Amino acid sequence: MEKSIRHLALDILTLVQKRQKFAAELIDNCLDAYKLSGTADGRLLTHLVYGELRFQGHLDWIIAKLYQGDFSILNEKIKNILRIALYQIKFSERLPDFAVVDEAVKIAKIIHPAKSALINAILRNYLRYGKKISFPSFEKNPAEHIAAFHSHPLWLVKKWINIFGKQETLSLCAANNEIPPLTIRVNTLKTTREELKEKLVSSGLDINETTFSPDGLTLSHVDQPIQKTSFFHKGLIRIQDEGSQCISYLVSPKENELVLDICAGTGGKTTHLAAILKNKGQIVATDRDSKKISELKKETGRMGITTIATQTADLSISLPDSLKERFDHVLVDAPCSGTGTLRRNPEIKWRIRPEDLNNYTAVQKLILGNAALAVKKGGRLIYSTCSLLPEENECIIDDFIKSNERFSLCKPPSLIKPQLWDKHNFYHTYPQANNMDGFFGAILKCQ
Description:
By secondary structure, the chain is of the alpha/beta class. It has helices spanning about 5-20, 25-35, 40-55, 55-65, 75-90, 95-110, 115-130, 140-150, 155-165, 165-175, 195-200, 230-235, 240-250, 270-275, 290-300, 355-370, 395-405, 430-435, and strands at about 180-185, 205-210, 215-220, 235-240, 260, 280-285, 310, 325-335, 375-385, 405-410, 425-430, 440-445. It has 3 domains: about 5-130, NusB-like (N-utilizing Substance Protein B Homolog, Chain A), CATH 1.10.940; about 140-175, no CATH class; about 240-445, Vaccinia Virus protein VP39 (Rossmann fold, 3-Layer(aba) Sandwich). The strands form 2 sheets. Strands 5, 6, 7, 8, 9, 10, 11 and 12 form an 8-stranded mixed beta sheet that branches. Strands 2-3-1-4 form a 4-stranded antiparallel beta sheet, covered by helices on one side.
């Protein structure tokens, strides 16, 4: 029997939870396998998976009130059937309520027949009594209200309230549940932003220029995945959030300078740096994951880049001798909690634990310390994360400077607009303030 779209969504959510996979990759694989790319069913599948992940805490609060038992030990697939159905009933108008309930019961009869009556009872009780279910009061219990209503882990909400205050945390968590813009970076080695914008508009797309990155465009009403278009296949674009694009302008290398990109991943910032350098000079890109290095090499071919040399290296262990004191600029895009990317990767909310932060900060300190050995005198060390937690950002820099007196903080280049850096010369972007993913950056000069 052919699986329904809601059943496919259930399968994806199960893999996200059991195998610690990211939803984006699983959705793309499913769209290709079932030939759903660019179709209404494909858009519905994406809508259901991301909707459930974004609003999981909100949905769980309601379901727990309707379930007469310990919700925490309920079978995870049953939880997901309920979450998907409740998300559709409460947040989507694409299907009548009775049809949503009927579909959920049908899936339960396939997955776990003994629980189909429970699914039916909980959903029908929501239709009868759902409007009477209340959430914690923002005035009396702000952290509990934000966590439940705006669907974030309570421990993270409490941390953010201590950092940003109650109202700003509410705004941040609400923004994290919105669909982020589809932002692309123009490959200026092959075209200009103006030329590409004209071509994209001619193809029927709704396009806007990004405010802070001179190389970015945001796309609206895209019917098919941008990776399936000729613009992508010709290497004219790369999908990249505007906040991430600006990191390369923190580096701002000049032609023929030598750049080291540590933790380069699949090359989002590396390939941008190559474009800023106009394919001149040299960039050495390292990552401990050989698969990511392979993907980076493919990207350099697609985008027409000839100045990137790659190397597999784990700088949490040591810096290879061949890289010591050689570079004008060293970029450390450190592995982190990803708390600035919850709009795009909402599964992170339900995956990360408070104790994980100690592991991240330990690795960040090791990588930054080893990376510093690659900077030549007069060169610069740039540290960035996609985290919104000071432990991974300001605290890492403060600790580093205390034990590395030859490095000092310096101001971001003039290309980075003043709205994006604070009084300490740290770079910050926020979903609720800038409609960008949350990023942090610091520039350190070697004396």
